Amino acid sequence: STVDRYVDYARIVGQALGDKVASIATFNEPYVTAYLGHWLGVHAPGIQSPQVSVNATHHQLLAHGRALKALRADGVKAPLGIVCVFGPVHPATSSEADQREAARHDILFNRLYLEPLLSGRYPGHTAELLGVVPEIQVGDLTDISTPMDFFGMNYYMRKIASADTPQAPYPPGAQVTDMGWEVYHPGLTDQLLEMKRRHPN
């Protein structure tokens, strides 16, 4: 029912602004709400539940896809899409444990959004690496993968994954921002190339 209410909201926005703005993004960074708010609990609503988190991810993406269909049916002229936060995930070492942790973080941070949106499916190793999968109804993935006019990407940093510590240290001498995030310029190129490899154009 939350998805339905979101579509109602999107239609109101579309009717008011659909011919006045350059573009409309349904969501900005659903990862922040779903993972930081429902898995780690460091953002609102402060829940710490992997299952609730992946369900929140799924329902945001479902609301996005159904909103696109509704806005187009209403004749909205503005280009429609979504904006996600992505970045490459590198293992801290070449160990098998760190490689697995990097694959896990790649699903959480990137592929849990990219693959349903662009390919209509969730990553094949989701259950194995996360221990949970979204609760999906028939037709959900078709709605989620509704074609977009644009796909926005926010890039801030790479992630360094370690099986031994939740926050692997940055390399010695790494430049960091005032927020403590590593400045890693190649990450933008790395992520775009990885997206192109998995989802050609």
Name the descriptors.
201 residues, mainly alpha, three-stranded parallel β-sheet, two-stranded parallel sheet, 5 strands, 48% helix, globular
Offer a quick outline of the entry.
This protein is mainly alpha-helical and 201 residues long.
Unreliable segments (pLDDT under 50, ≥5 consecutive)? none
Radius of gyration: 18 Å
Number of helices: 7
Helix/strand/pairing class, anyone? mainly alpha
Overall number of strands: 5
List the helices and strands and how they pair.
Layout: H1 2-17, E1 24-28, H2 30-38, H3 50-73, E2 80-85, E3 89-91, H4 96-119, H5 126-130, H6 140-144, E4 150-154, E5 159-161, H7 186-198
Parallel strand pairs: 1-2, 2-4, 3-5
What does this structure look like?
By secondary structure, the chain is mainly alpha-helical. The protein has seven helices and five strands. It has helices at residues 2-17, 30-38, 50-73, 96-119, 126-130, 140-144, 186-198; strands spanning 24-28, 80-85, 89-91, 150-154, 159-161. Strands 1-2-4 form a three-stranded parallel β-sheet, covered by helices on one side. It has a two-stranded parallel ribbon with strand order 3-5. The model has no long low-confidence stretch (mean pLDDT 96).
